[in-house]
Write a structure and sequence with these properties.
59% helix, mainly alpha, 0% strand, 2 helices, single chain
């Protein structure tokens, strides 16, 4: 019996894609900067909102 070849994406992959897309959109709408977040983390400071 031949192996089943799956075409398309797994539901987990689709979910992960949309979770990441939502987080990126949230970050853009909120106006946050990843540079500020990284610098604050390096200096162990709280982010200003």
């Amino acid at each position: 019996m031949p192996a089943v070849i799956r075409t398309g994406y797994w539901p987990d992959q689709i979910l992960l894609h949309w979770v990441i897309a939502a987080r990126v959109l949230f970050q853009r709408v909120r106006g946050g900067s990843m540079t500020q977040a990284i610098e604050a983390a390096e200096e162990e400071e709280a982010l200003s909102t």
